[in-house]
Amino acid sequence: ASARRNAPGLINVAYHPRLFHDGREGALETQVWGPLLAPDEMANPSLGYVLDRLRALPDYAGLFETAFAGRGASADTVGAALASFQRTLVSGDSRFDRYRYGGMSDALSAEERAGLAIFTGKGRCATCHLIGERDALLSDFAYHNTGIGWLRSQEGGAVEVELAPGVRARMSAAVVRSIGAAPRSDLGRFEITRDPRERWAYRTPMLREVAATAPYMHDGSLPTLEAVVEYYDRGGAGAPGQSPLIAPLQLSAAERAALVAFLRSLSGRLPKPESAHPGDRR
Predict the structure, then answer these.
(1) Rounded to whole angstroms, how far apart are CA atoms 61 and 109?
(2) CA distances, 77 to each of 64, 74, 169, 273, 274 (Å)
(3) What tens digit of pLDDT does each residue of 3-62 get?
(4) Count of CB atoms situated within 10 Å of the CB of 251
């Protein structure tokens, strides 16, 4: 449990004005270098090391020069190449879109329509996950203290750990520290702005393809959509500075199930990425 945060989803990332859970980067071209150099991610020792490896790989021979008018692999061209690919990761034409914007009244089931009504009404989800008249990016792109960051910081807090693919167990923080690196503190947006009002605040994620992006929250502490809905239904963690937008919802079991069903309807059509290597296109 040495990584502080769950990997943010990349679906529709081109529409995010700021990147990472704390919004510390403003452009995909520069954001891409963060994971490449982070010691608990790809752990490359330096930018130059990455470029030297790319230049030495025969698979990339001539590709950067072809794509960038004779310019080889550099910090700028690697950033531009990765950013260009990420901008193709667009999801749309979900059953929700067909219902909301396409006039297809039968695109959602009765349970999913009930879930949409809860999402925009009693559940208060659309307060932060915005649905517009003509489109829905499903985020206000603001930063909110949901209580999860504070909860994770508590000494006796439990952590969801993946022991093997598909096998997860909930362990106390003390047990996690006894078998791995101690979790590092994480104060969210405060680490960027130093504004006390943004302690434990994280960016509102977009919800496209949310059914396929478990686990959830900035730290991956909630394993299922059902767990997320239950967390917000009980009003979060009651953390210091928790957003006043989060309060007990008093949803019934049927309403919670309907809300989850609606969230699953946000899966749409994704592009099929092609290999960038000309020899792979046959």
Answers:
(1) 51
(2) 7, 5, 42, 20, 19
(3) 789 999 999 999 999 999 999 999 999 999 999 999 989 999 999 999 999 999 999 999
(4) 19
Q: Are 219 and 231 in contact (CB under 8 A)?
A: no
Three-state SS at 61: coil
Omega within 30 of 0 (cis) for the link into 215: yes
Residue 155 CA from chain centroid, whole number? 26
Which residues does 225 contact at the CB level (< 8 Å), separation at least 6?
210, 211, 214, 216, 260, 263, 264
* C-alpha span between 128 and 142 (Å, rounded): 8
pLDDT reported for residue 157: 57
For helices 253-264 and 110-120, angle between their N-to-C axes, nearest 10 degrees: 100
Residue that the structure tokens 């990425």 belong to:
273
Q: Is the pLDDT of residue 208 over 70?
A: yes
Mean pLDDT for 252-276 is 88
Neighbouring residues of 245: CB distance < 8 A, sequence distance ≥ 6: 124, 127, 128, 144
- Give the CATH fold of the 13-277 domain: Cytochrome Bc1 Complex; Chain D, domain 2 (1.10.760)
Give the predicted TM-score (pTM) of the model.
0.87
pLDDT in tens, 75-125: 999 999 999 999 999 999 999 999 999 999 999 999 999 999 999 999 999
CA separation for the pair 225, 209 (Å, rounded) = 12
